[in-house]
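Entry for the shared binder. Reason: the reviewer on the internal report wants the predicted structure included alongside the sequence.
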Amino acid sequence: MHEINDSLHKGNRDDEIKVIISEGAEDSFREGFDFPNGVEHTPMVTKKS
């Protein structure tokens, strides 16, 4: 989870980064997110299934 947060924060600080793509492994599902106001203004919620 730390790698995801680090990537999002880096993308938020660098105006050259327009897209961050993450992939799931094997049968994992990944959903997309839109951060119109930047990741700093978007609360992150995680939970185990």
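Summary line for the report: The chain has a mean pLDDT of 73.
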